[in-house]
Every structure is written in structure tokens, then in C-alpha cells.
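Complex 313.
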Amino acid sequence: MTTVDDVAPELVESFETTIGHHDRIEPRDWMPEGYRRTLVRQIAQHAHSEIIGMQPEGNWLTRAPSLRRKAILLAKVQDEAGHGLYLYSACETLGVSRQQLTEMLISGAQKYSSIFNYPTPSWADVGTIGWLVDGAAICNQVPLCRTSYGPYGRAMIRICKEESFHQRQGYELLMTMMRGTDEQREMVQESVDRFWWPALMMFGPPDDDSPNTAQSMEWGIKRHTNDELRQRFVDMSVPQAEALGVTLPDPELRWNEERGAHDFGAIDWDEFWTVVKGGGPCNAQRIAHRKRAWDDGAWVREAATAFARRSAS
Ligand SMILES: [Fe+2]
Ligand SMILES: [Fe+2]
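Predicted structure with fe (ii) ion bound:
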């Protein structure tokens, strides 16, 4: 491992100057080992979330209520696969292979967003995921377009454009259901009741329990803290819920004139940690499904490698 002590001082200085100017670090540049490791962890976790995130919605592909809804959902789920691929590629520029990353996901050595360990028993969940889950992802990801690592920031720019479409399609789906029957309105409310709190957990633990945040901000990897982003998401969602005509399931949610922001109730962090540690309703199912897909695809990887070898010789 290279530490700051055994590299040429001009390399360290050049790294620090780049970070100080909010410029990009590129794969060819020297970087501290901790910076590299933090990025591998964060980008991998992000890539895994895109890929695992295809499952809860994929659950509705064969049961979408119309051809139009099926085409939209199919396009959205395919976008998420694309996001996963850009991010795995960005991660590979840091010297770790796609194979290693997938193995770390399957073994549980690397995590993905806890939100995808919740089930999607209702069609309204497709709309709620677009509105709240992709909405929370946008809050998290827009600042990452300016992250200090070049390949990650550039991947985020394209991803964010697609996430905006995802958020709008979810909101439009819910709006359509809210203009429908009483049963449809109930379905939307029931789905929002289930997803609201897990969506708030997507921003990660509170700032005073988030040991990596300070260093990540110093390195320009993160631009805002978890609590800042969570607050921004709550403030953004309240008027959207009103326009939709749903109630957010938090009796303590109210505007605080002094802070110029909404106060909200306490998040159940025990539930968050249980799900992160593998005890959520769908953790085992999500990983088993991913492992099956990886095993089933082994022959494709072998054939592609053999073909590439033969073409090269
Ligand atoms: Fe995505
Ligand atoms: Fe998305």
C-alpha cells in the first residue's frame, strides 16, 4: 500500500491542489490509498444498488396494467441496468474487476441501498418507487455530478438525466391512480405509507453516526452531509404529496418558520441497521436471485472470453 510518506511530495501536492480547486482527479493521477478505497466502496455500493434495484420493479413487468405502462416500466428497468454498467466501469478504473465486485456483492462483503430489501406487493409501488426512491436518489446524486473523481462524476451526469425521467413517470403514474377510483387512491396511500420512512433512510445514518462523511467531504467525494440531503428531500416531497392528495405518514411533519424547513419525526434507526445487516424482508431473496443470474450467465462470460482470446491471436 502506498502511503503519503513514501510518494514524491509533488504528487501529493498535485492531488491536494486538484481537490482544492474542485477539479477532477483522473484514473492516471496519483491518489491516496484511502481515497481510492473510499471511492471503490461508494461506487460499488451505488452500482450494486442499480442492479439489485431492478428486482422490486421487475416483479411487475409481466403484470403491468397496459401495454403503455409495460413499455415505460421496461425502459426504466433497462435504464437501471445501464446505470449499473456505467458505475461498474467507473469502478474498474480504480483497479478492481467487475468479477471481484460481483463476488463481493454476492458474499455480502459490499452493500447496496437498503430500500431494495422491501417488497413490492402492489402496482402502486411502481409509482411510489419512481416518485420517492428515484426522487431520493436524485437528491443524493445531483451533487455527485461535481464529485472529485472524473469517471464517477461523468457517469452521474447521464444517470441523473435518466433518474429525472424515472421520478416523473412514477409521479405521473400515482397522479393517474389518484384520479381513478377509491380503491386506486387507497392503493396509493397504502404504498406511500410503506415507502416513506425507508425512503428517508436512503440518505444513510444521521451525521453524528456517519464516521466517513468528514473525510469524504474533505476529498470532494461527497458535497453535502446525509442530514442536509435528507432535509432537502423532505422539503421537496411535502408540496408534491399535497398536489398528489396523499398524506405522508408522519404526525410530526410540519413547517418550521424559524428554520425555513420542515421538522419531521424520528427515524427508526434500529430498523435501518437490521435491514443493512441482512435482516430486511427481502435481503436473502435479492441476493439469491442475483447469484442465480450470475451463475446462469457463466457460459456467456466464458464464451466471450474465449472469443476475445481467439480474435486477438
Ligand atoms: Fe438508476
Ligand atoms: Fe432510477
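The chain is about 65% helix and 0% strand.
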